[in-house]
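subagent[fold] <- orchestrator: predict structure for attached chain, return tokens only, no commentary.
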Amino acid sequence: MIIDFATEFADLLVPWAGARLSAGTDDAEGNYVPGTSVPFTIRATPCQPLTQNELQMVEGGSFDRSIVKTYTADTVLNSDLLTYNGIQYKVMQFDDRQPLGTYQKVYLVKVQNDN
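subagent[fold] -> orchestrator:
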């Protein structure tokens, strides 16, 4: 049975701000010109920790705790930037669950501020 995720879980979905970066180009002198950022909004579940099976071991044998997941019926792409509760995340991977019920499971990594 297919689940209509956006309807069945509507009470759990919250707004996330997103930014999708377009591809950069080279100008007439061959200098790289970065692409523009296009804002968008999705509705998704709040951040959730990964399960033990989803944890990815990083070099040195430790687990990367800056990776979280969310579920959404909206479309996201790898490298999209999503912001929830003032924290920015980058989409690192998503599992298309469309055959199961019109949603995506999205893995996010927290964007570290270099300041």
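orchestrator: received. Logging for downstream: The two ends are 48 Å apart (CA to CA). Residues 5-110 form a domain with the Thrombin, subunit H fold (CATH 2.40.10.270).
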